[in-house]
């Protein structure tokens, strides 16, 4: 019997195994990954002969969890260039307004251009909002500052993180500071002003790795394997059942399943497979998990001969009201100096498709998506582009969980319904960003270790 099995080798599963190993160096830890590779949404692949990220591309460096892991593994952090992002709004690429908190302005006049004069005036006259329990962030901001702030700023910025619909995503889960400020009788504008004037370090906000942040789970898995953790790929967990003092997992193909026993289990898979695994042993948790929707996305990366793409912006976001196909573009060579150095003859750009509910996006063939991305890029830049020298289409079905209104209660219900010895970790719970996934893994591991220490003590008494 293994001491602990971790289901899923995305960043959350691997971080859970690392935490368990650190706290309990002698423990027998097994990580079971259903696909053929570790990393989940962190994934590198080749474009024009260079390894680049085909999934997540950076970690927030202002939180300690991800950069801590990078440093601990002895990897070198790469910082983005000091170029700002843009917004493709009202037919032109415009500098992203400065001093907003996820699109909430500290000073409405900074939104001129992105918003018209009437919309700026509405945003400048913030209305009090009475909140009683969770509501959507879109609804909160719309009542306070008007619909245009939601349509042209909150939507693209929130969409950049959640690929979601601001009028459905939970204010309490996605921007708790905004909810709390309004609930306490304050204003959103004052909150954004405080955030804009807070003392700030000069340290870069984001970090990545040369060759892509997708190298992080690979390095972590190698580190864990060297320390004796068993990591199996192609090991899909199909069922979990109770046994005395633990759990029995059914693993592998339906035709040739095998079983594995463990005292405790960390479930670090997305919500839908986790719900299936918990159906019999934790039905209430399974039901709450099944209510979490996911947005699917497609990323198309292009390499152009150098000079096709400007260097003075890191890319742009597109508000859904613009009616374009793409929702964002990253000018990767301009954003990441490591990539400019590694691939000096080319400009690498990526565009993303797919907001919550846009399932049809994933049904379009690769060539059609690649062509649509090129057309939108040319439209944003206001000129025709040369044919790319290389193109790569990466689909992310079920890419990002949607934190709908009531998310915090749903997560509390999921955790409350779990039997002792089982814990959950990953993007479905306390934040979709990589640092938040790592934090949820630490929380799950610590909870299980406390429980295992308790059982050992009981059996010794
Ligand atoms: C396109 C895209 C870009 C993103 N960009 C960023 C970014 O730049 N910065 C950032 O911070 N965040 C970003 N995110 C979000 C972040 O990458 C993810 O939220 C995070 O990586 C999720 O990690 P996870 O371990 O929770 O889940 P996953 O990465 O989904 O890993 C779960 C693993 O579980 C496995 N699994 C599923 N079912 C089973 C089973 N039954 N048995 C065994 N294994 C199973 C899966 O195969 C998978 O490997 C992005 C997300 C996407 C989709």
TrEMBL record:
<keyword id="KW-0274">FAD</keyword>
<keyword id="KW-0560">Oxidoreductase</keyword>
<keyword id="KW-0350">Heme biosynthesis</keyword>
<protein>
    <recommendedName>
        <fullName>Coproporphyrinogen III oxidase</fullName>
        <ecNumber>1.3.3.15</ecNumber>
    </recommendedName>
</protein>
<feature type="domain" description="Amine oxidase">
    <location>
        <begin position="11"/>
        <end position="449"/>
    </location>
</feature>
<keyword id="KW-0963">Cytoplasm</keyword>
<dbReference type="InterPro" id="IPR036188">
    <property type="entry name" value="FAD/NAD-bd_sf"/>
</dbReference>
<dbReference type="InterPro" id="IPR004572">
    <property type="entry name" value="Protoporphyrinogen_oxidase"/>
</dbReference>
<comment type="pathway">
    <text>Porphyrin-containing compound metabolism; protoheme biosynthesis.</text>
</comment>
<dbReference type="InterPro" id="IPR050464">
    <property type="entry name" value="Zeta_carotene_desat/Oxidored"/>
</dbReference>
<keyword id="KW-0285">Flavoprotein</keyword>
<dbReference type="InterPro" id="IPR002937">
    <property type="entry name" value="Amino_oxidase"/>
</dbReference>
<comment type="similarity">
    <text>Belongs to the protoporphyrinogen/coproporphyrinogen oxidase family. Coproporphyrinogen III oxidase subfamily.</text>
</comment>
<dbReference type="Pfam" id="PF01593">
    <property type="entry name" value="Amino_oxidase"/>
</dbReference>
<dbReference type="GO" id="GO:0004729">
    <property type="term" value="F:oxygen-dependent protoporphyrinogen oxidase activity"/>
</dbReference>
<comment type="function">
    <text>Involved in coproporphyrin-dependent heme b biosynthesis. Catalyzes the oxidation of coproporphyrinogen III to coproporphyrin III.</text>
</comment>
């Amino acid at each position: 019997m293994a001491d602990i099995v971790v289901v899923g080798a995305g960043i959350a599963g691997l971080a859970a195994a690392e935490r368990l190993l650190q706290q309990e160096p002698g423990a027998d830890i097994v990580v079971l990954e259903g696909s053929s590779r570790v990393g989940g949404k962190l994934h590198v692949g080749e474009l024009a002969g260079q390894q680049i990220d085909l999934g997540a591309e950076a970690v927030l460096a202002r939180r300690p969890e991800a950069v801590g892991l990078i440093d601990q593994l002895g990897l070198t952090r790469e910082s983005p260039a000091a170029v700002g992002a843009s917004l493709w709004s009202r037919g032109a690429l415009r500098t992203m307004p400065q001093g907003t908190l996820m699109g909430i302005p500290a000073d409405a006049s900074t939104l001129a251009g992105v918003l018209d004069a009437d919309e700026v005036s509405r945003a400048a006259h913030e209305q009090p909002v009475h909140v009683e329990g969770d509501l959507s962030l879109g609804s909160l901001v719309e009542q306070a500052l008007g619909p245009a702030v939601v349509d042209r700023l909150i939507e693209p910025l929130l969409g950049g993180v959640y690929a979601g619909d601001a009028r459905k995503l939970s204010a309490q889960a996605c921007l708790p500071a905004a909810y709390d400020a309004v609930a306490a009788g304050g204003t959103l504008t004052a909150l954004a002003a405080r955030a804009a004037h807070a003392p700030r370090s000069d340290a870069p906000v984001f970090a990545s790795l040369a060759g892509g942040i997708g190298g992080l789970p690979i390095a972590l898995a190698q580190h864990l394997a060297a320390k004796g953790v068993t990591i199996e790929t192609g090991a899909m967990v199909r069922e979990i059942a109770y046994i005395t003092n633990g759990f029995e997992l059914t693993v592998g193909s339906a035709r040739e399943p095998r079983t594995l026993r463990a005292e405790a289990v960390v479930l670090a898979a997305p919500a839908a497979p986790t719900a299936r695994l918990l159906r019999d042993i934790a039905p209430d948790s399974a039901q709450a998990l099944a209510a979490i929707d996911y947005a699917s996305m497609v990323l198309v990366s292009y390499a152009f001969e150098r000079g096709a793409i400007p260097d003075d912006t890191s890319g742009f976001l597109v508000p859904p009201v613009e009616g374009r196909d793409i929702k964002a573009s990253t000018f990767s060579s301009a954003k990441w100096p490591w990539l400019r150095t590694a691939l000096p003859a080319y400009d690498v750009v990526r565009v993303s498709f797919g907001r919550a509910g846009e399932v049809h996006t994933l049904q379009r063939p690769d060539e059609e998506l690649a062509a649509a991305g090129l057309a939108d890029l040319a439209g944003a830049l206001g000129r025709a582009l040369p044919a790319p020298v290389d193109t790569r289409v990466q689909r992310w079905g079920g890419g990002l969980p949607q934190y709908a209104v009531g998310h915090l209660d749903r997560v509390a219900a999921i955790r409350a319904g779990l039997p002792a010895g089982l814990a959950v970790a990953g993007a479905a719970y306390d934040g979709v960003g990589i640092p938040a996934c790592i934090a949820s893994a630490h929380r799950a591991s610590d909870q299980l270790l406390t429980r295992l220490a308790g059982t050992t003590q009981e059996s010794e008494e």
